[in-house]
């Protein structure tokens, strides 16, 4: 409940993340694999205005990965945020060093190559 005498005017809990989930589908053989993944986050509308939190729109992104297993070595390549979606993660403006209230978007399309060795 609000407690104006204590400076609490809002009824929403602070720094609460919206519903977020991901699903992936992976197909693999002995020597290789391929994977597609989708991530989605609901809009964050229940914010604590006493802390100057701002609503954040929902978003959805897609990722793809493929890899090869060769003995103890695994090579994986992929693309994160395949469709180069512009989005803000919830409360991204609360993280250090961004406490000034500046909203920082997440990276756009990212291509990666990983090399792994098992021993």
Structure description:
The protein has 119 residues and is mainly beta. 0% of the residues lie in helices and 39% in strands. Strands 1-2-3-4-5 form a 5-stranded antiparallel sheet, with no helix packed on it.
What class, by secondary structure content?
A: mainly beta
Query: What percent of residues adopt helix (DSSP H or I)?
Result: under 10%
Report strand order across the widest sheet: 1-2-3-4-5
Provide the gyration radius in Å.
20 Å
Low-confidence stretches: none
Q: Main beta sheet: strand number and arrangement?
A: 5 strands, antiparallel
Q: Report the portion of residues in β strands.
A: 35-45%
Question: Total number of helical segments?
Answer: 0
The tally of beta strands, per DSSP, is 5
List the helices and strands in order.
Answer: EEEEE
The pLDDT mean sits at 87
Q: Looking at the structure, what is the overall shape?
A: elongated
